[in-house]
Amino acid sequence: MKTLPPAIVLFATALFAASFGACGSSELNSQSEGLSEPPEAPSTSGSKNWQTDPAFVPQHSYATTVSSVIDGDTIRAIIDGKQTSIRLIGIDTPESSTSTRPEECGGAEATNFLHNILPPGTPILLTRDQELLDLYDRLLAYVHRADDGLFVNLALAKYGMASELSFPPNTRHTSHIQKAVTAARNSAIGVWGLCGTTDREL
Q1: What whole-number distance in Å separates Cα of residue 67 and Cα of residue 70?
Q2: Fewer beta carbons within 10 angstroms: which end of the chain, N or C?
Q3: Is residue 34 part of a domain?
Q4: Which residues form the catalytic set?
Q5: What is the mean pLDDT of residues 166-191?
Q6: 81 falls in which pLDDT band (50, 70, 90)?
Q7: Which residues, 6+ apart, have CB-to-CB distance to 86 below 8 Å?
Q8: Domain count, the chain
């Protein structure tokens, strides 16, 4: 793993420290245990119908702004005045096309879905789990939309755009994401209806 500039590591660690343990499962509202089956994905023309989960809104987090969407589970945001890649924890979306890999079925849809939820300029809240960075030096985070508390990681699972993918020890919301994925898959919502899976190449 390449070495990040010390200032970035210290800055990110300090900011995320406030959220460490703040949203553990023991502190979640009991409503979070009973995830309902996701409704049909709302129109991409607006966000007023998105199903939010107040029980998951973090008590402590780092506020920033989305600068761009890279793919269905990765965004860039401003951290300490710099563009920083952020990998959404607990989920995996179909790969979008790059120079080194083919696009998977649903890759474009998942990316567009996330872009619709988090267009550039959207204020967001970031909270961490146990680890700060992944193997690619991306910040690992749970992402909430600041204006209405939408839990973006869970929304991608609920609306059929992601499968569950957990890497211990970062498993704080694994059970909730698993439930959402199962409901979406059983209802053939999103990528499950389009592709039948989340990792089929085009």
Answers
A1: 10
A2: N
A3: no
A4: 87, 95, 138
A5: 93
A6: confident
A7: 74, 75, 76, 77, 126, 138, 139, 140, 141, 143
A8: 1
